[in-house]
Design a protein that fits this description.
CATH superfamily of the largest domain: Ribonuclease III domain
Strand content: 5-15%
Largest sheet: 3 strands, antiparallel
Distance between the termini: 29 Å
CATH class of the largest domain: Mainly Alpha
Number of helices: 10
CATH topology of the largest domain: Ribonuclease iii, N-terminal Endonuclease Domain, Chain A
CATH architecture of the largest domain: Orthogonal Bundle
């Protein structure tokens, strides 16, 4: 059951002039599978735009905040902050999943708590704010939602992205560097879903899906880390 969208607007401290843009940001593609949706589109175009805005915002913010960090440290810190897991955790704090338009099947399978869906919707919401207002409002939204993440991750002595974390674990336990292979691609060119497997010594450890190969690799490495740490 979707909650009233004015609640979400209050949580993010942004009131949409055009509420249809907010609606659009919350439409998962599974919702279109239930027939009778007419010309309704998914939020994936908004996500595409929001991803670019997020990348610019975080690069600009880290460049200005940490003049002492070299390129490698800035890159790792950026990866940690915008990774699927962190964006999903931030989304959970504002209960973003409660406002999603999902198919009944996706909802039954935990779509409102799915990390990939939440992260993608966060990006779509960023895109919607930009379209409804301007880049400054989109940056303001990201400032509010992600500044705590910058503080948290920048305080770590060692900054590692999910793939680097699993690489270290695999090398420590097996003495082998993991490799990633694309298992499948589906969907039209502008809405592709990639499935990627992470392998250690030619043995498949885990798979992950995403709307880019990078996101799919990231998802696979997170699951593989949990497997090697006996968390799943």
């Amino acid at each position: 059951m979707n909650l009233p969208l004015d609640q979400l607007q209050n949580k993010i401290n942004f009131q949409f002039k055009d509420s249809e843009k907010l609606n659009q940001a919350l439409i998962h593609r599974s919702f279109l599978n239930e027939g009778g949706r007419g010309s309704v589109q998914s939020n994936e175009r908004y996500e595409f735009l929001g991803d670019a805005i997020l990348e610019l915002w975080i690069s600009d913010a880290l460049f200005k905040k940490f003049p002492e960090f070299d390129e490698g440290k800035l890159t790792n810190l950026r990866a940690l902050i915008v990774c699927t897991k962190n964006l999903a955790e931030v989304s959970e704090k504002i209960k973003l999943g409660d406002y999603l338009f999902l198919s009944k099947g996706e909802e039954r399978h935990g779509g409102r708590q799915n990390q990939s869906i939440l992260a993608d919707t966060f990006e779509a919401l960023t895109g919607a704010i930009y379209l409804d207002s301007d880049i400054y409002q989109a940056f303001n939204f990201l400032d509010q939602q992600l500044n705590k993440s910058i503080i948290k991750f920048s305080s770590k002595k060692i900054l590692k992205d999910p793939k680097s974390v699993f690489q270290e674990i695999a090398q420590a336990k097996k003495g082998i560097t993991p490799t990633y292979k694309t298992i499948s691609e589906s969907g039209p060119d502008h809405q592709k879903t990639f499935e990627v497997g992470v392998y250690v010594d030619d043995q498949l450890v885990a798979t992950g899906k995403g709307n880019s190969k990078q996101k799919a690799q990231e998802a696979a490495s997170i699951t593989a880390t949990k497997i090697y740490n006996n968390l799943v």
